[in-house]
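User: Need the bound-state model for adenosine-5'-triphosphate:
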Amino acid sequence: MNNENHFIICEKLGKSYRKGTTTVTPLEELDLQVERGEFLALMGPSGSGKTTLLNCLAGIDRPSSGKLFIGGEDIAGMSRGELTTWRGKHCGYIFQLYHLVPILTAFENIELPLLLDKGLSKSGRRFRVEAALDLVDLADRATHFPSELSGGQEQRVAIARAIVTDPQLLVADEPTGDLDSSAAGQILDLLQRLSREHGKTIVMVTHDPRAADAADRCLHLEKGQLLEAHQKEKATA
Ligand SMILES: Nc1ncnc2c1ncn2[C@@H]1O[C@H](COP(=O)(O)OP(=O)(O)OP(=O)(O)O)[C@@H](O)[C@H]1O
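Assistant: Bound-state model below.
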């Protein structure tokens, strides 16, 4: 597992769930390699295992079989506690419906993941939150509550919250699914920038062909199998 370019390596990755007396296996012997800094889109019919794969990559779910290495670390071999620590440092999760805390301001929402780092001072947190707000172009909305923001602005706050700990990996589950075309375009531009200019590796689930087109590569997941849909020449910053 020493290929520097392959930030994510899945080998025969499997995930099964018990449902009463039956077993559901959304991922079976899945092989996938993602380069460091690559922006990858995942498409596929409902129930094909896209979110299951995303949750394995994010360390939320533990694979049932196979190997999973991210940034050289053996994710499949970690305990739940080790996964939680790993996720806090190395992975940011972006949801379709933002999942912001309604009673906190944009600044306070973005600051939340930093509160877990007891070694970080208040001024250190402020510096990082302000940098994240600048990056998503919302410095003038720091004191606004989610109800005072548009959907696109809420998603940009959620992206700032995902990147404030400076993780290498971002996973996004239909990040433009609830947005109009113009706001969706801004989110896709931002994700492209995070990959091309900041070197983030991004894995995004989407049903939207335009969103998939913004990525460097698109894969289709069908019954646990990955099929390559398109690959673009990677643009440099
Ligand atoms: N925690 C769980 N317990 C039991 N079954 C689960 C669990 N999570 C997912 N599944 C099952 O695994 C299969 C894949 O689900 P998953 O959410 O990964 O699909 P998806 O491709 O993301 O679908 P959608 O596009 O509808 O979100 C489904 O049959 C689902 O019911």
